[in-house]
Amino acid sequence: MSVVNSESVVTNTRTPVVIIKPILYGNTAKHLGTKRDSDGHTHRWSVYIRSFNNDDLSTYVSKVQFRLHETYPNHARMITQAPFEVEESGWGEFETQITIFFADPNEKPVVFYHHLKLFSTDPDVVAGTKELVNEHYDELIFQEPSDLLARLLNCAKSLAPPTDENLGTAKEYAIKKHDTINRVKQARQRVRSEIQDLTERLRITQENIKRVRQRTMDNNSHMGTFSLSVHDNIKREIVD
Amino acid sequence: MANADVLDILSDTIPTTSRGAANKDEIIREKKKGPKKSIRRPEGMKREVWSLIAQDDRESVPIVPTDTKSGGNSYARWIKHSAMKVRSWQWTPFTNSARGPNDTFVLYHWQHKTNPDDPPQEYPFAKFNKHVDVPTYTDNEYEQYLQDKEWNRNETDVLFELCRKFELKFLIIHDRWNNILYPDRSVEDLKDRYYTICTTLEYARTKRHTDKYNFDAAHERRRKEQLNKLLSRTKAEEEEELYLMNELKRIENERKERERIISQDVQKFVQQQDQNIPTTNNCIQRTVSSSSRRSSINQDYLQRLNSSSNRTSTTQRITTCDPPVGIKFPEFKRPGVFLRSQRMILPSSIPNKKLAVIDQVLKQCQLERNPMACEEIVDEFNDLRSDIILLFDLKNALNSAEYELQTSLHRLKSENGSTNMGMSSTQSSGAGINSSNEPSKTQFDFLLSQPSTPNENITSPRLSDSFEPTNIVRTSTTERKRRALSSQTSTIKKRERPS
């Protein structure tokens, strides 16, 4: 909790205000064990969106639309109440379009995509003993929200004291975040050093091109006079 | 316009009733407007179709070709004529003054009945009988100015007579040219002689240059020849020409397109690196200029000298400055709600090649394509991808530069080789050739070897080494050349080793 962005960030003045609400979205899936005869479904899954720090999402979110694959009956599922979640069964993965509508209808809804994942190489998941979880951490950024929405955002209270499970996920994400940052930084360091390296090499190469051209010119003007001092110069340049 | 002309002509022929005509004109206009307004467009007919048929305008186009060539509103004309008094015609004799003063030949034609008191009018078309004023020359003038080795006096006289006789209709003159008595002349020859004489005479008499007679015989000949050729083309030739023209157009277009893309790329690159890494954009510009057109090496060379003098002063900055941004990510400045992860979406302007490179590097660094979306990670991650693109561009620039270095080195080597050969053959013989060649080659070869800069993570392979050499400017032929070149250098090395 402490590592990941907490409740809300309010900048010094009233406007512009930026409020950040961390969320989690994704899907869980579990193998049924058999292939159902009636429709050929093999997995039970649920796709969801929920608050990261356990506040009541429904204070500022009016409804969420999950657009499932077209083969599902009534494939645009509109959820208007608190667990914003769709439970279904199926046999294949697909891209889900998720649209979040906010309490203030003037605010434009946020649209994003989630790849509904069913299959994994994890042996436990394959056996059907463990649930597959494909979850993403993201943050809703409210840039200069309307007064109504700002008020609602600020009064969104926690539903219940955080459970062990909540704390567990929070910790998990904190570790993951730390890890990712480190890795990105390392990668960037590596790329940076190579950029510098290449820049230097490019410079030297160009200097050399210049010198070689110079020599060619000299050669053309007075053939055959081959002074060693020029080569010394080139050598010195490279050592530099 | 047409109607006005008609009116002019008519009023000319009926001068007596001009007042009445004005009144009639008004009446005609009234009448013309009356029925026009009453006719409306039938329902269901398209507006365009109606405007073709409806005669509401003087300039309207009749849908059926009419045999009256004057055009205009036939209905109005009909009314006009019906309103006029009928005038009788008469079969009258006339003489034509254009036929010459002594000619009394009489012809007849139909004419409006005229007042017997009026004086007999001259035949109106006689005035169109114009004569060309063909100049004459005296013996003296001919001797002085008009001598020509191709033409003799007699022939010239005949020409001028014919000119006078046929009123400068040179085709007829050519036809009547007596090519038994005189050498065969083309139309252009005749014209040329005639107009040259005219111009010379004019100048001799007035002492002033005139452009009254303007005839370019050579041009005329070329023109006719060209027309002849055009006319005598076969079908296949015509098709081939058309095909070639199309091809040319296509190639031109492609070239323009290519140049546009290249200049765009360079522009982009220059903008990105403007202050920070001047060397790279110099290099890119160079590759572009050298590939687009190897115009003049000297100019190119001078430019290079200039740019390199600037370069050395700025090189210190390169190492200290932050590399510039390689990707411009969308910014969310406007009020509204959005997801943090949306800031990580790569702009669609990035070509697939670069996307692939980003993916490749991320994979090598064991990173996800869509990491956890919190502020620090997103910022850092975007910067990382910018850097990757920059690295990629740099790598390409370096490749081109190294290639250029190799080619110029190769050229220098071959030149040096030949000069040294020449020198050594004069100085010593046999083994001297190899020994004198050797130092020059080794001295240059070390330029090609990559400078080994201290690298912190030597254990991990260089990211940029795995990049595919993709440069729009480079074509497969240069690639092939490079390969040939490298194999050549390796054989040289092999050969040198034992000695």
From TrEMBL, chain A:
GO CC field: nucleus
Domain of life, per lineage: Eukaryota
Chain ranges of the YEATS domain: 13-156
Places the protein is found: Nucleus
InterPro entries, A to Z: YEAST_sf, YEATS, YEATS_dom
Chief site of localization: nucleus
GO biological process per UniProt: regulation of DNA-templated transcription
Pfam families the record matches: YEATS
PROSITE patterns listed in its UniProt record: YEATS (PS51037)
Coiled-coil regions, chain positions: 181-215
Keywords, ordered alphabetically: Coiled coil, Nucleus, Transcription, Transcription regulation
Name of this chain's protein: YEATS domain-containing protein
Biological source species: Rotaria socialis
Automatic annotation (TrEMBL), chain B:
Presence of the UniProt keyword Coiled coil in the record: yes
Keyword Coiled coil listed: yes
Ranges of biased composition (kind: Polar residues): 414-476
GO molecular function: transcription corepressor activity
Domain DNA methyltransferase 1-associated: residue ranges: 240-416
GO biological-process terms attached to the record: chromatin remodeling; DNA repair; negative regulation of transcription by RNA polymerase II
Compartments, record wording: Nucleus
Entry keyword set: Chromatin regulator, Coiled coil, Nucleus, Transcription, Transcription regulation
Designated name of the protein: DNA methyltransferase 1-associated protein 1
Organism: Rotaria socialis
